[in-house]
Amino acid sequence: MFQKAALLAFSLATAVYGQQVGTQMTETHPKLSWQTCTSSGCTAAANGAVTLDANWRWLHTTSGYTNCYTGNTWNSSICTDGKSCAANCALDGADYSGTYGVTTSGNALTMKFVTTGANKNIGARVYLMADDTHYQQFKLLNKEFTFDVDVSNLPCGLNGALYFSEMDADGGLAKYSTNKAGAKYGTGYCDSQCPRDIKFINGEANSVGWTASPNDTNAGTGQYGSCCNELDVWEANSISAAYTPHPCTVNGQTRCQGDDCAITSRYSGVCDPDGCDFNSYRQGDTSFYGPGLTVDTKKPFTVVTQFLTDNNSTTGTLTEIRRLYVQNGKVIQNSKSKIAGMSAYDSITGAYCDDQKAAFGDTTSFQNHGGLKTIGQSMGRGMTLVLSVWDDHAVNMLWLDSTYPTTSDPTKPGIARGTCSTSSGAPTDVETANANASVIYSNIKFGDIGSTFSSTGTTSPTSPGGGSSTTTTTAPQTTQTKYGQW
Q: b/e string for 161-190 if b means 16 or more Cβ within 10 A?
């Protein structure tokens, strides 16, 4: 939902984004198995693996070890302009576990928040690969995406995010001749915030007009941003969770400049920065998600997301994004909205987004950028799976798990998003007190509606006071029943 520019890392050279390929460390992608499913069952996909985003990698001269970027400053003697920087600098392989705290085992990916070795690394972002040089592309219309997650070790101020961005499958390798690294080295990132902290965009350094961050010793912003449609399937910690589509008026990864990047106004850009979010706490059900609640974040659980179309086909128009959970063998229907002026919605539809924006008094940026129809078209073209863990140097993650804006009345609809204190989430605090935080993603499945999960029962909350009831069910829902939207 909000700017992801706070991601940072420290290694032999401070985290950077480059285009040539270095030879100091061999790039070996950690294996990660996942499955595709139909009504007949699930099969393992071939060549599952992840690659580290290029913004974390060591960038040095092609002829030696001199850093092209240190702290939050470019080496101006090497990077005199964007094109020369791309020619002079090489992006190297990654020590995934030792430097970045990224490990895999079978179908499970563990991402540590802080990893301290010879140097200190904070957070990470990885992409699922189809093969050694291409990101896996998912076409989500009339499909279902499921994964297990353990957020028990993610406190206030942190975000374990699993989402899709409309990135080029090869990381821009074919489009931009100065990009020699491609998807193998994690190039070509984009999202709906049009991030300007990306070090290289479209095969050129973003060094011109670069401004060092005043509160982040490892980050800054350049004159360009990297925009694309973004579908946040999961942004969460142990306190709060949200899923949020963000449409753009551009197709695929697009470099922006000026107001197209929303520099002077949050809503002047080519992408929707707010999205249309479903956060159970923000929608008024404060007893649904969290430690010991209906979805108990002290234990792992399964997250199921279904993308329904108007004609039940993979070529139809996206009309609904539905959420289910499975925990302890029970299917848990999503919480229902309890906001005055809204129906008891429990999924994202056009009507839900219209009513939510009106009830909360929010800007209709989502609708202005095409809403579900536009994000659905992006899903039809194919999107890259992104998995990350990060802290927030902009607003301390308060938009996810606390009262935000902090100056607003928390009793006003849409302001309270979780139980975290408004003084929580400061990176200087969480990077010290919660250095051992981590998130585990596992058991990724993708396929036909109703094919990726099973259960022995269905659980749903009964009242704002807590508690739940259990009823038996013979099979997962496969029809387009509109829960709570009569």
A: bbbbbbbbbbbbbeebebbbbbbbbbbbbb
Q: Which of 289, 243, 229, 201 is nearest to 468 (CA)?
A: 289
Rounded distance, CA 476 to CA 406, Å?
41
The contacts of residue 161 (CB under 8 Å, 6+ apart) are: 4, 232, 234, 235, 236, 386, 387, 388, 389, 390
pLDDT given for residue 118 in this prediction: 75
- How many C-beta atoms surround the C-beta of residue 154 within 10 A? 24
CB of 483 closer than 8 Å to CB of 347:
yes
In sequence order, the 6+-apart residues with CB closer than 8 A to the CB of 276 are 244, 245, 348, 352, 353, 356, 357, 366, 371, 372
- The encoded tokens of residue 440 equal 């585990």
Residue in the block written with tokens 């899923």: 243
**Domain 31-53+96-471 homologous superfamily, CATH:** Glycoside hydrolase, family 7, domain (2.70.100.10)
Mean pLDDT by 10 residues, the chain (486 residues): 40 47 83 97 94 94 90 91 92 94 98 90 96 98 98 98 98 94 96 96 94 88 97 98 98 97 96 98 98 98 98 98 97 98 97 98 98 98 98 97 97 98 98 98 98 75 35 31 25
DSSP state of 84: H
Q: What is the 3-state secondary structure (H, E, C) of 54-76?
A: HHHECEEECCCCCECEECCEECC
Q: Which of 432, 477, 414 is nearest to 155 (CA)?
A: 432
Token pair listed for 419: 């139980």
pLDDT at residue 216, rounded to an integer: 85
- Name the DSSP letter for residue 297: T
At CA 422, angle to CA 421 and CA 426, rounded to 5? 95
Domain residue spans of the chain: 31-53+96-471
Cross-strand pairs, 121: 115
What pLDDT is recorded for position 23?
A: 66
Cβ-proximal residues to 310 (8 Å cutoff; 6+ apart), any chain: 316, 317, 319
Radius of gyration of the chain (CA): 21
Active site positions, annotated: 230, 235
Q: How would DSSP label each residue in 94-134?
A: --HHHHH-EEEETTEEEEESEEESSSEEE-EEEEEEEETTE
φ/ψ (deg, to 5) at 345: -65, 145
Q: Which residue spans within 237-382 are E strands per DSSP?
A: 241-246, 254-257, 289-290, 295-296, 301-309, 318-327, 330-333, 347-349
Query: Of the candidates 79, 91, 77, which has an alpha carbon nearest to the alpha carbon of residue 208?
Result: 79
3-state secondary structure of 265: coil
